[in-house]
């Protein structure tokens, strides 16, 4: 048993795909046409870090309730955790790419951590070894 996908509600597909693939370095696993339950067109978009099993389903907000969830998936708490081998190089690369860091790097018993926001505004922990 494993978690295969986690949905991330985004405003639009293409800017989200660009953020996750070009900025964070994820792989675009799938981008296929699909339909909503009432027959309207949508896309099935999956990204994941290289070598990872669990991916993100990038779901375009559909309606007011979902639009309100963009950037607030976890009610302001860090809800996503990206672990990297080279924390300093990744932090520098993301900062140089314009990623918004809302908390600077610090060292904790479990390693290095800094909090950044994704394209939708959701907070993530960037994690690396101590």
From TrEMBL:
Residues 2-129 form the VOC domain. Coiled coil: none annotated. InterPro entries: Glyas_Bleomycin-R_OHBP_Dase, Glyas_Fos-R_dOase_dom, VOC_core. This is VOC family protein. It comes from Micromonospora carbonacea. The lineage of its organism: Bacteria, Bacillati, Actinomycetota, Actinomycetes, Micromonosporales.
